[in-house]
Amino acid sequence: MTFLKSVGVALAMTAVATVGHAQVIDKKALTLDAAKKVAAAAEADAKAKQARVVIAVVDDGGNLLLLERLDDTQVASVNVGIGKARTAAIFRRPSKVFEDQIREGRVAALALPGATPLQGGIPIVVDGRVIGAIGVSGETPGQDEDIAKVGAEVAKQWSSK
After folding, report:
1. pLDDT tens for residues 17-69?
2. Is 2 among the domain residues?
3. Based on the structure, what is the number of domains in the chain?
4. pTM
């Protein structure tokens, strides 16, 4: 009987170890240093275009890592830029998708929790996974998005492919 109990305990421990391992994954994360590189690329592009914008970089959960408000940028763009970045991160797609849905009549998109349905939020993707996002606000929607794309493009160099 003791032998059977020992075998049973060993099997149970193996099962727990296997299940515990299955619940953990390795993933890339956006560091502060990486966020600074994303923002620097966006800032350089904005300055070259004489754009006055806010640049927000968030992690994959939409939490703010870095915020820059270029000189003479309207203060209202701070929260808008953060919202655009957060939207792109948590929904794993550009914030413009939601703006387009509303423009096309799908007003229910306005009820999505945490969504800022304005163009200018772009996911930061590495190895096919969203590790964060950048949001830009202050100029026209198209200009904001173009500047955000320049920042997000930096992540291509981090791909392991």
Report:
1. 555 556 888 889 999 999 999 999 999 999 999 999 999 999 999 999 999 99
2. no
3. 1
4. 0.85
